[in-house]
Amino acid sequence: MNRYLYDGPVMEFDRCVQSNWKGETMAASETKARSNLSYQWKKKNNRIASVKITLPGKLREIS
């Protein structure tokens, strides 16, 4: 598993709801890391699971 760091905007249904958010996760792939980070943001900001959250910024892999 790799460690990933995200630092960038959060989009909710193609609308920017947070311009700069930082999150970190452990995942096997970049796709799974984005999914984990979206879930973290939803939980922290009281959103239900069906809300479409996208993280368009760059995801960095940390060694």
Kindly name the structural category: alpha+beta
Number of strands: 4
**Structure annotation, total helices:** 1
Helix-strand sequence: EEHEE
Secondary structure: helix percent? 10-25%
Concise summary:
The protein has one helix at residues 30-44; strands at residues 2-12, 15-27, 53-54, 59-62. The chain is α+β, with helices and mostly antiparallel strands.
Task: Write the topology of this structure.
Elements: E1 2-12, E2 15-27, H1 30-44, E3 53-54, E4 59-62
Please name the defining characteristics of this protein.
1 helix, 63 residues, 4-stranded antiparallel sheet, alpha+beta, 24% helix
Q: How would you describe what is shown here?
A:
With 63 residues, this protein is α+β, with helices and mostly antiparallel strands. Helix content is 24%, strand content 48%. The protein is built from one helix and four strands, in the order ββαββ. The mean pLDDT is 96.
